[in-house]
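To: structure subgroup
Subject: Chain for Friday's discussion

All,

I'm putting the inputs and outputs inline so they're searchable in the archive.
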Amino acid sequence: MVRDRIGVLVLQGDFAEHLKILQRCGYRALGVRSTQDLEIVDALIIPGGESTTIIKLIDRFGLRDAITKRIDAGMPVFGTCAGAIVLARRVSDGEPPLGLLDATITRNGYGSQVDSFEADLDVEGFETPVRGVFIRAPFIDEVGADVTVMASWGDRPVLVRSKNILASTFHPELAGEHRIHKYFVEQMIGQ
């Protein structure tokens, strides 16, 4: 199984931190900014940033159909914060998302930049808590029947999985947390 072709969407957001985390874990990560880049990766990470901008750039670079087709065909994808919004089926406002994750998300659910915070999260299957950074983080308001909640903060899901889609409303990469990336690569690629 090839585990060194993990793509990170490098159009906008904190993609550099995802690339660093993957490299620290021993994986060779590739920046994705075109359909040609997308064709050679086995998985994709959509980073946090500004979801409306990310979606507009996905459309500007002609990636919407290619990303959607690859994910529908089983390619694993991991979206963090804005990346989770991009993957969602329903969003409270903003540009239409890709519609791949059966979830309803509210942008900036926890508040503005000054309301950002860090928290230790109990994640299903992990022995110790995962540190998450919540920056203008979205709320996951509801999930479909095929979505598993892997971690919550209060009564809100913050890490969910549905088949080949993993989404978090927080940034593990900004806390230097590598275990969720390792889970993504080791548990979701090549299934």
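Points worth raising on Friday:
The mean pLDDT is 92.
Residues 17 and 74 are 25 Å apart (CA to CA).

D.
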